[in-house]
């Protein structure tokens, strides 16, 4: 079976790297198409199973499975010219957040990957890909998508547009929110000590990593963890009081902007 990826930006590159690194996930050939061919030229020498092109029709003619990963407003413009060249058995998947585009003939699966799933040899399966199939996607095609993304990420299948939006915020936007939050925090601390911003950032990132592990593995619930760290009138409690007062409003504003 051949798979084509159209669009080699942040997500197209992430998907390609994961698929290649997982020994092509049982695919015969991987077609990678990008508008700017020079961006993908280096891929053609990696493995004979990779074909590169700037012609999306070549992907449509050769691939049973096609993942479109262009900016959301470009999705329809990329999909429409493919239609005359695909068969009833072609499966179309897209990664575009914030669209309700339909394709009744073949059905559409939407997968929202996350930059957290960037390939890393030491930890090849991470991040959560959010998946929603429309009603025209066959059971076999659903299984294909879910199996493929399970190779390099956790998956969460949702069945309503609102769940898709919420899960997208949690899995796909959150890495950027976390990065900004740590960066701002490290910047504030820099002015007050001899540690460089980079040194403080590393401490924060390691703390985030180990705390996330404790919470993810249910070693402590959020409440238990807070109680283990904070003592009455101690500095952690003072910090928690500030966050308790200000964070709910920030999150309310954030969510109302995004939904
Ligand atoms: N970034 C994230 O963390 C993230 C997470 C989840 C979902 N998404 C969604 O995934 C989609 C892609 O996001 P991205 O961040 O990867 O975008 P991006 O970095 O802007 O990449 C888009 C790619 O599409 C290519 N392209 C544009 N028109 C094309 C065409 N007609 N034929 C072939 N290739 C074409 C562009 O080629 P050029 O090289 O010529 O510009 C570019 O490489 C978006 O809809 C976004 O909402 C993104």
UniProtKB/TrEMBL annotation:
Q: Which residues cross the membrane?
A: none
The UniProt record gives the binding positions of NADPH as 56
Keywords linked to the UniProt accession: NADP
Q: Which GO terms describe its molecular function?
A: pyrroline-5-carboxylate reductase activity
- The residue ranges of the Pyrroline-5-carboxylate reductase dimerisation domain are 164-254
Q: What is one Gene Ontology biological process annotated in the Swiss-Prot or TrEMBL record?
A: L-proline biosynthetic process
The record ties this protein, via SUPFAM superfamilies, to: 6-phosphogluconate dehydrogenase C-terminal domain-like (SSF48179), NAD(P)-binding Rossmann-fold domains (SSF51735)
Among PROSITE patterns, the record links this protein to:
P5CR
Q: Which family does it belong to?
A: Belongs to the pyrroline-5-carboxylate reductase family.
Q: What is this protein called?
A: Pyrroline-5-carboxylate reductase
Organism per entry: Methanobrevibacter smithii
């Amino acid at each position: 079976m051949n798979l084509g990826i159209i669009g080699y930006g942040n997500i197209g590159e992430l998907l390609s790297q994961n698929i290649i690194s997982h020994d092509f996930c049982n695919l015969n050939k991987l077609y990678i198409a990008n508008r700017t061919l020079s961006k993908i030229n280096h891929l053609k020498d990696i493995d004979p199973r990779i074909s590169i092109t700037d012609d999306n029709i070549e992907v449509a003619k050769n691939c049973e499975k096609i993942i479109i990963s262009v900016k959301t407003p470009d999705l329809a413009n990329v999909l429409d010219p493919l239609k005359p060249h695909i068969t009833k058995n072609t499966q179309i998947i897209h990664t575009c957040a914030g669209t309700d585009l339909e394709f009744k003939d073949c059905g559409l699966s939407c997968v929202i990957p996350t930059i957290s799933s960037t390939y890393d040899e030491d930890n090849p399966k991470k991040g959560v890909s959010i998946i929603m199939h429309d009603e025209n996607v066959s059971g076999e095609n659903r299984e294909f998508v879910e199996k493929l993304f399970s190779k390099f990420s956790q998956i969460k299948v949702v069945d309503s547009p609102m769940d898709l939006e919420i899960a997208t915020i949690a899995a796909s936007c959150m890495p950027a929110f976390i990065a900004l939050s740590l960066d701002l925090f490290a910047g504030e601390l820099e002015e007050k000590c001899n540690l460089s911003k980079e040194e403080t950032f590393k401490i924060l990132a390691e703390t985030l990593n180990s705390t996330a592990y404790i919470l993810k593995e249910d070693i402590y619930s959020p409440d238990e963890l807070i109680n283990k760290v904070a003592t009455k009138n101690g500095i952690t409690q003072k910090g928690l009081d500030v966050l308790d007062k200000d964070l709910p409003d920030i999150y309310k504003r954030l969510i109302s902007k995004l939904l």
